[in-house]
Design a protein that fits this description.
The complex is a heterodimer of chains A (about 625) and B (about 400). By secondary structure, chain A is an all-alpha fold. Helix content of chain A is about 60%, strand content about 0%. Chain A has a two-stranded antiparallel sheet. The longest helix of chain A has about 35 residues, at about 90-125. Chain B has a five-stranded mixed β-sheet with strand order 3-2-1-5-8, with no helix packed on it. A five-stranded mixed β-sheet of chain B has the order 4-10-9-6-7, with helices on one face. Chain B is elongated and about 105 Å long. Classes of the chains: A mainly alpha (about 625), B alpha+beta (about 400). At the A-B interface, helix 5, strand 1, strand 2, helix 9 and helix 10 of A face helix 3, helix 4, helix 5, helix 6 and strand 7 of B.
Chain lengths: ~625, ~400
């Protein structure tokens, strides 16, 4: 392999770099070290998540008590909540920014950015990313995007408020709502910066995975986390540019008088001059990214949970190849299902039928993944670390939310469920809660790798149980609102007789949401406290096989002192019969584990098989393995 | 010995704290009781509204959790000092919690299905709606079975296979037969659902028109934040519209040059004759809205610059539905389901499904869109009879052109 030759050159380079003096700025701010960038992504992601969660509590308060005043809201929000009541326009802004932040900044950048950066070099045995400078730029573009997005809260007309999908003409015609003015411009700028960041990251991830694997690390020896990050990055590279194209056209429509998305519009009696465009065009462009985007969100979470479940069940992940193929299947199929967001938008019904077929096919690889998780747990020896608890929670949410997807993917059922609370419940379980749980599982699992210290397990347990229960209490009842025909993004349920019976449910859901939000305090305290005061982590706290745990606890530029370890086996040799421990790291050659080798391990290498046979003949005691 | 002393000290300290907390609570409770006795009604409303109150409650909860955490720590340290095995077997705790969660969760699901499930929309009031409901029920049954079984397995395995130092997990990396089975079975089930869904979808959107039972055309136009309904009048055809003709008097931009438009009628509510197919022509003036009629399982977006069409047949009159739901105030309605601005949450109109005879009397009472002002504007004779002449249409053409010009200037 030519790539290995490259590595050896790098070794010397990096050893030299180690002697350079690091300043505060080069180490913590404009760092080009993948581990520091991962931490930057994570902490920014956590801050954005807390903000977005806060926004959700604000609109949940409005939904639960639509006719009560909360003076503290006016204190915080000023004219947007005059008299302590959130205004309808600002309610929509809250919903919009909550969605945007959660989907893009937390679950895309916070999740992929953190764990791809941290784990790709460490699990593959590379000194750093293929392009550390691009990697640094990726973070700073993301950071700028966050700042621009948040700055829209400090302008007169408020943030964008046309929903996170920003459908035109609502988002394009400034007169349609206050949020479609300056706020929307900032949204678009922020999104362009974000996509640039995401592309720089994605290109880096793909090139690192393809070119910089250590000796022996062929593709089929990569942990599932890396497979997930790899396919996620490909998905991002192919779909995000389409969003930028759409966004550029929208900028033109908004600022330069073009009519890509506009036609035949009359605001009151004011006839707009735009002709010939189509609002449906935006929906196609948006969902061409938007649907792969939900898999960009969930696939890293699935990769993380595969790893965490395998490590903590002390069992190889069941059906490693099937897991990879189902990820590939999801990746490919996710490009041809976007139309299921548009069944009732007036798109040709013929297309609706086609998209329904592709959509329901994607349930098959998802089902395979779920069954493989269950099979991994079966006859395992499960350690309930906080990471494992969150991974099990993820599987539960993935099942619950995935099953409701079968309703929504069916075009004829979607007629009555489209844009109702059923949709809200569905995606909050399957991509919201499941992906957040994947992210939290990753944080608990790799915290020792990131900060060299352990998080407090008991606070982790408390955090998990409160969040898990609260998330179900919040989202399960919402399905029934949707089945009763309550549309989403309603400011209040007071104007419709048939919705009034759900007001008490809304109060309940809001309390559950507040409980979930407060439970995060346990996490935040644990996270920041443990960075400085946590117990110092041992070398391999979870007795895991993957390569990152062979790197020293103390971070150093270049990850490993001396040579990069060589990989001899796949990462899931847990509880292998005949071996004295219940794990065999990837760096242990088969020659050191003669007592546990299986014929399958040698991949048809006749010479190795012969050596093994000879050894077995010479050591008949080892034959008692199952 | 000194360690032991330390622990005893800590235990005593923890106990002391606990006792103080409880003592304080009871003292406060007594105070409150005394206060209540002295001043009969203390208005707590303001207290409940103040943020500081909730912050204090939260801090108290945090303190309580911290005390419990310390107590657990003390217990564990004392076990360790006594040379016994680990204090709390957390693996067993979590395994049991998962089992408990499974049982309570399944009961919760059952409760939701029966209690909230009983609060849902009544059975569909349209022909295609029945098919959708059947499709829904089938999907619900299949998914509920999968949901329950997989969750029993997930939490059941978590409970059974909890960590034990004595045991080693079963090395079982793959089994192609099993994997094939659980790829093919979901694929087959989904094929059934896809096929049924596809057929239902086709029957809804690809209807063959029965020449003897032509659908009633009704046009619905959405704008921020209201709906306008246009009935076709005697000719049964909803006439043309052109957004460039929109004025304060002709808010929908109806083109009265088109003879079919002249008898079009306006209505405050949508009245439909039972059992007759209805063809909804959906349009929008400003932004995208969504025309949503939950009781009839009808939804389609209204898109500016594009006509969308939904055809359905109502099968139950409002009166029948009132009986069925046991609610004399029951009303069908349609509402907006696509975010469209600040008034999105209140865009509704009543739908009344009545007998054919009732419909005929009602429709006869409705006014046409064309009024005297508009006749003047379109150079039509003020007399009701529509007269068509070359000069007339030429004149309207020029008016339209003028309006166009104005629109373009804006």
């Amino acid at each position: 392999m030519s790539t290995i030759a490259l590595h050896d050159e790098h070794n010397h380079d990096h050893a030299d770099h180690g002697h350079h003096k690091e300043t505060l700025i080069s180490k913590y701010i404009f760092s080009m070290d993948h581990k520091m960038i991962a931490k930057q992504f994570l902490i920014t992601g956590i801050i954005m998540a807390v903000i977005a969660m806060g926004l959700s509590i604000l609109f949940r308060i409005q939904l639960a008590w639509p006719d009560q005043n909360f003076p503290f809201l006016e204190t915080f929000l000023g004219k947007w909540a005059e008299g302590g009541r959130i205004k309808p326009d600002f309610y929509l802004a809250l919903v919009t920014i909550h969605g945007t932040i959660m989907v893009f900044f937390v679950l895309t950048a916070g999740l992929s950015g953190t764990f791809s950066n941290l784990l790709i070099p460490l699990q593959l045995g590379a000194r750093d990313m293929a392009s550390p400078f691009l990697n640094m730029l990726s973070y700073w573009f993301f950071f700028t995007a966050c700042v621009v997005m948040m700055s829209s809260f400090f302008i007169q007309t408020g943030p964008a408020s046309g929903g996170w999908t920003v459908y035109p003409p609502l988002s394009v015609v400034a007169k349609a709502m206050p949020g479609s003015g300056m706020g929307m411009t900032l949204w678009l700028i922020s999104m362009v910066l974000f996509v640039a960041s995401s592309l720089m990251g994605g290109i880096n991830y793909v090139s690192t995975i393809l070119n910089m694997r250590t000796k022996g690390m062929d593709l089929w020896k990569m942990p599932l986390t890396i497979w997930a990050f790899f396919l996620t990055a490909i998905l991002g590279i192919l779909s995000f540019p389409v969003l930028v194209a759409g966004v550029v056209l929208m900028v033109f429509d908004r600022s330069f008088g073009t009519s890509f998305y506009l036609s035949d519009i009359v605001m009151g009696t004011d006839i707009l001059p735009n002709e010939g465009g189509s609002p449906i065009l935006w929906q196609h462009l948006f969902w061409f990214l938007g649907h792969p985007e939900v898999y960009i969100v969930i696939m890293p979470a699935l990769g993380i949970s595969s790893e965490v479940i395998s490590v903590n069940s002390r069992k190889p992940i069941f059906g490693y190849h099937a897991m990879v193929y189902s990820l590939i299947g999801i990746t490919v199929l996710s490009f041809i299902v976007w139309g299921h967001h548009m069944f009732v938008t007036g798109m040709n019904p013929l297309l609706g039928g086609v998209f329904m077929i592709t959509t329901l096919i994607i349930a098959v690889p998802s089902a395979v993944k779920t069954f493989n998780y269950l099979a991994t747990l079966w006859r395992g020896n499960i350690r309930f670390t906080p990471a494992m608890l969150f991974a099990i929670g993820l599987v539960s949410f993935f099942i619950s939310g995935g099953l409701t997807g079968i309703f929504l993917g069916n075009a004829s059922l979607d007629i009555n469920l489209h844009d109702t609370y059923f949709v809200v419940a569905h995606f909050h379980l399957v991509m919201g809660s499941a992906a957040i749980f994947g992210m939290l599982a990753g944080v608990y699992h790799w915290f020792p790798k990131m900060f060299g210290r352990m998080m407090n397990a008991k606070l982790g347990y408390l955090h998990f149980w409160l969040t898990f229960i609260a998330a179900y209490l919040v989202f399960f009842p919402l399905h029934f609102l949707g089945l009763d025909g309550v549309p989403r993004r309603y400011y209040a349920f007071t104007e419709f007789e048939f919705m009034k019976k759900w007001l008490t449910v809304n109060v309940f859901v809001t309390w559950a949401a507040i409980m979930a939000a407060l439970a995060q305090v346990a996490f935040l305290f644990n996270f920041f406290y443990s960075i400085f005061k946590g117990k110092v982590s041992p070398q391999n706290p979870w007795e895991s096989n993957t390569l990152e745990w062979t790197a020293p606890v103390e971070h150093l530029h270049g990850n490993w002192p001396g040579e990069i370890p060589t990989v001899y086996r796949w990462p899931y040799d847990y509880s292998k019969p005949g071996h004295h421990e219940d794990f065999i790291p990837q760096t242990v050659p088969f020659s050191q584990t003669m007592s546990s080798n299986l014929p399958h391990d040698f991949e048809g290498n006749a010479e190795a098989e012969k050596i093994q046979q000879d050894w077995e003949l010479a050591n008949p005691v080892a034959e008692n393995k199952s | 010995m000194s360690l032991r002393k330390f622990i005893t000290n800590k235990t005593t300290a923890a106990l002391a704290v606990l006792i103080t907390v409880f003592a304080n609570t009871s003292v406060f409770a007594q105070d409150a009781a005394a206060g209540a006795a002295a001043a009969p009604k203390v208005d707590m409303g303001e207290v409940y509204k103040s943020v500081i109150f909730y912050i204090l409650v939260f801090l108290a909860v945090c303190l309580f959790i911290a005390i419990i955490g310390k107590a657990i720590r003390v217990y564990e340290l004392s076990r360790e000092a006594q040379g016994k095995s680990v204090g709390i077997n957390w693996n067993r705790v979590h395994a049991s919690l998962f089992a408990l969660f499974l049982v309570i969760g399944l009961y919760g699901v059952y409760w939701e299905y029966t209690v909230h499930g009983a609060m849902l929309l009544p059975d569909a009031a349209s022909e295609h709606g029945k098919k959708i409901d059947e499709m829904f029920n089938l999907t619900l049954i299949i998914t509920t079975i999968v949901f329950v079984v997989t969750h029993i397995l997930l939490f059941g395995f978590s409970y059974i296979y909890k960590y034990s130092a004595k045991r080693k997990a079963y090395y079982y990396p793959h089994n192609n037969t099993i994997e094939k089975i659980w790829t093919i079975v979901p694929a087959l089930v989904l094929t059934v659902l896809v096929l049924m869904g596809f057929l239902t979808w086709r029957s809804i959107f690809f209807k063959v028109e029965d020449p003897n039972n032509k659908p009633l055309q009704i046009e619905v136009t959405s704008e921020q934040f209201k709906w306008s309904i246009r009935y076709p009048g005697a000719d049964g055809i909803v006439g043309n519209k052109n957004y460039k003709l929109t004025t304060a008097t002709n808010t929908l931009g109806i083109d009265f040059k088109d003879i079919n438009s002249r008898d079009d009628e306006m209505a405050d509510e949508m009245v439909l004759p039972v059992g007759k197919p209805v063809k909804l022509i959906l349009t929008s003036k400003d932004v995208i809205h969504s025309f949503y009629m939950p009781h009839f399982r009808v939804q389609l977006n209204t898109v500016p610059g594009m006509r969308t069409i939904f055809e359905f047949t109502p099968t139950k009159t409002t009166a029948e539905m009132q009986q069925e739901t046991n609610d004399p105030n029951f009303k069908y309605l349609f509402l907006c389901a696509k975010i469209c601005g600040s008034g999105h949450y209140n865009m509704q109109k009543v739908v009344r499904v009545v007998s054919e005879a009732e419909y005929k009397t009602w429709i006869a009472e409705q006014k046409t869109y064309l009024n005297d002002d508009l006749r003047k504007q379109f150079n039509l004779p003020v007399a009701p009879a529509p007269v068509k002449s070359v000069a007339d249409s030429a004149a309207t053409d020029s008016t339209a052109a003028k309006t166009n010009q104005m629109a373009l200037n804006k």
